[in-house]
Model the fold of this input.
Amino acid sequence: MYAVIKTGGKQYKVAAGEKIKIEQIAADVGQEIVIDQILAVGNGAELKIGTPLVAGASVSATVVAHGRHDKVRIFKLRRRKHYKKSQGHRQNFTELLISTVNG
Done:
């Protein structure tokens, strides 16, 4: 069984036993969280699609770790204008271990 969840402005396809990295949420390591914004739930050939959310569906997960992604380099250059700008960014994430998918 799998589900399509919405968190942090993004959508993720998850199944039980998977690890995913999502936008950082305020939860302690080891804490059990429940995600109730489920857009779709599938089981083999069956697929329930919400309008916009599936009623009564939820995904439970455990927070494994918090961290930061690799650095993304931003480099701007205007040729022949003596303009160079270099910048970097590291986005925070929360790693989740999906326990169960209830649909």
About this structure: The chain has a mean pLDDT of 96. The radius of gyration is 18 Å. The chain has one domain: 2-102. Strands lie at 2-7, 10-15, 19-23, 32-35, 38-43, 46-49, 58-68, 72-78, 83-89, 92-102.
